[in-house]
Amino acid sequence: MIVPRTSYVEATARRRVEAVLDHDSFWEFLPPEERVTSPHLSQLDLPVAFDDGVVVGGGTVQGRRVLLAAQEGAFMGGAVGEVHGAKLTGLFARAVDERPDAVVLLLESGGVRLHEANAGLIAVSEIIRALLAARGRGIRVLAVIGGGVGCFGGMGIVARCCDAVIMLEEGRLGMSGPEVIEMAGGVEELDSRDKALVWRTFGGKHRYLLGDCEYLVEDDVAAIRESIHQALEAASGFELEQLEAEHALLEKRLRELAHLHDAIDMWRALGLPDPDTLPMLDLARFTPIAHRARSFWKGEG
Amino acid sequence: MERRSWREVADQLFRGGHRIEARGAFLSGSATVDGTAISVVGTTDHATIDAEMALRIASAILRVVREAPGRPILILVDTNGPSLRHRDELLGINTYMAHLAKCVEMARRFGHHIVSLIYDRALSGGFIASGMMADLCFALPQAEIRVMNIRAMAQVTKIARERLERLSRSSPVLAPGAENYFKMGAVDEIWSGDIGAHLAAALRQAVGPDQRASRGLERGGRHLAGPVAQKVRWYGRDRTIPATCDRQG
Amino acid sequence: MVGWAVSAASTFSSLVKTTMEHLEFTFPGRRAATGRKHAVLVGVVGSGNLEVLLEPKPLGGACQIVVKTAVAGFGEIWQAVLEDFCRRHGLGDLLVSINDLGATPAVVALRLDQAVHELEGSGP
């Protein structure tokens, strides 16, 4: 029997929440009928969403208690405004009180919502502070990245503040998106219409090879649930020794790769065979090769 | 108001002298305030924060945590924002920024009092992982703090510039400036006069968890951030029956 | 700090050429709306799409519909689509709240039907 896959990428934030959590286990905090919408968008005479583009609540994944948030990429590119950000910040405060097995973030965001400029920037900063404070209190935080918008701007920082990142092959993670890079430096710096280039710069495979995500999965809700389960079992923590190890790794990354100008050159420098074929490989064939890169980072030097 | 170089600012902050050095746009060193040694890190020349710069600041903070337990840290902010280069994205600049934020958080956990001062420019992503991570954040009156200027914002949002400017007069949300960030709670105080005395007072100030949302509410610049976070924190917790059953009843 | 928000924001704004329009309708219902949930939301406020929030409430048997749309000037079409929806389902004591970003009548009807299915428990 072939069990059809449930696509995560194509689902809305609400559908993702339902699909990732155990059946009927979701309980939403500040649900849409509370109508906590953005006053700043209203003031600009722009449409609002009843949940301001983010769903927050609690539930279970394979029986483990989680608090969870999902950003809606279709509403203003998942961008963070005052209300949207405060919902995420409040979720971390709640996590410190309730001590769930994890906080799971289903991220899809362009970063700060420009229509709420200062409020959005401060909101992202408050998310980062609340997230790290929760981690300091022993709360595990996981990020899942997939979806058309990707995870950029301040939310790209938020993702990397988590204990683990689960990325879909189709996911994209970075700071400034391809259009912003092109706007700032011209088409010579980055051609945002060059899909292959954009993908190998921001995409799941490159992030996995660099160690920016711990799990790389197919666009399948069951695979994401399984990764969350694994991440819940994995060793984790936020202590000085771990931060110093990360520091050494990031120094090594600069030493080995900072002089290179394309992902393919970087993959070659990591000792991977036929680097230009990697974008075409399916995950079953890619993963064993990617393990070499993972051991490269673990090695001496 | 005159812009002041980092040297002028440092000379005014530390009348008794300091040992802060610039290497390129990176600042680091130490100084004494009220007889207490403090560490100083930061940037100058409207530094662009690339992967290397983020890691350099992180290194300096980790060194303080290792070598000078409990010593207060002052972060001097002057940045044009994150590097917008393809190579920095390839290297995962967001990971370097997150690492820097984690290092500041770790210093806090180890009991270091962390204060930041925006003495010139603070553009969005350039200070979110450093200055905005501090326990207390201060600004000089001429500090330029912003996500984007109104002209660029008008271009991107396709909202008329005149309209944005008009709205900026009544709301601190859109327009750049230290005063707006003060109203919204992200800047604790704007320092004028004897900035050395302000710093000494800031280092004596007790600090707790992130107070920015409640300050924004008190000052009338941000009405929803605090209350919405509190609502999410407490939503439905007074109920005695299991939440999921209640929702489906 | 500003990643894809730039492109998303500009796509979003280019659709919003007019000011927001606020419309309200009340239709008679034949039966009171009930469901296993006390509210459901379907759809998203993305371009060419809308979100529909259904809440069963005592409204004297009527179906009350509140529309906020980014595309002004289509009041008569809304009237027709919503009237048809109410005729087909006959739900009363129901508050329907809509945030619209330029959805076509077909999409509006589809989302309304989805929402009813979800409210009444026969949906996905």
Provide the descriptors you would attach to this structure in a database record.
heterotrimer; A: 301 residues; alpha/beta; 2-enoyl-CoA Hydratase, Chain A, domain 1; seven-stranded mixed beta sheet; 45% helix; B: 249 residues; nine-stranded mixed beta sheet; globular; disordered C terminus
Description:
- The complex is a heterotrimer of chains A (301), B (249) and C (124).
- Chain A is built from 12 helices and 7 strands.
- With 301 residues, chain A is α/β, with parallel strands linked by helices.
- Chain A has a domain at 13-173 and 213-237: 2-enoyl-CoA Hydratase, Chain A, domain 1 (Alpha-Beta Complex), CATH 3.90.226.
- Chain A starts with 12 loop residues before the first helix and ends with a helix.
- The model of chain A has no long low-confidence stretch (mean pLDDT 95).
- Chain B has 249 residues and is an alpha/beta fold.
- Chain B has helices at residues 6-13, 51-67, 86-90, 93-109, 150-157, 161-170, 178-183, 195-204, 212-218, 225-234, 243-248, and strands at 18-23, 26-33, 36-43, 47-49, 73-82, 114-123, 136-139, 144-146, 189-190.
- In chain B, helix 2 (51-67) links the parallel strand 4 (47-49) and strand 5.
- Chain B is globular and about 50 Å long.
- The model of chain B is unreliable at 240-249 (pLDDT under 50).
- With 124 residues, chain C is of the alpha/beta class.
- Chain C has one domain.
- In chain C, strand 3 and strand 4 (49-56) form a beta hairpin.
- In chain C, helix 2 (75-89) runs parallel beside helix 3 (105-120).
- Chain C starts with a helix and ends with a helix.
- The chains are: A alpha/beta (301), B alpha/beta (249), C alpha/beta (124).
- At the A-B interface, strand 1, helix 2, helix 3, helix 4 and helix 5 of A face helix 2, helix 3, helix 4, helix 5 and helix 9 of B.
